[in-house]
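Lecture 7 notes: from sequence to structure.
We start with the chain below.
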Amino acid sequence: MNRICLPVAKDYFQQIEGNMNPEAWSQALDDVKTSKWVIVWSILVAIAFSFLFIYFIEKCAGLIVWLFIFATLALILTGGILSYYYYVALTNPAAL
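Predicted structure tokens for the same chain:
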């Protein structure tokens, strides 16, 4: 089972030749090396904010749940009222 399946189409290697350019890979790695501290600090800030968000959710979970419940009810009520006014407008062409 030590076989490797290689494509035999002649144009296949021409299509992927641009992606396998060693200079492009070298430039990409140099860019990562240049911006490594930005990447590291971005990861650390993201982790810190995620822990702060988890703490916030833990302390305010009840408030957030009730706000979503009231917001959902308000949206349903608003949708019902707007649907009723739209129905009245459609059944009474003079109101349009």
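Points to note: The chain has a mean pLDDT of 85. Residues 41 and 47 are 10 Å apart (CA to CA).
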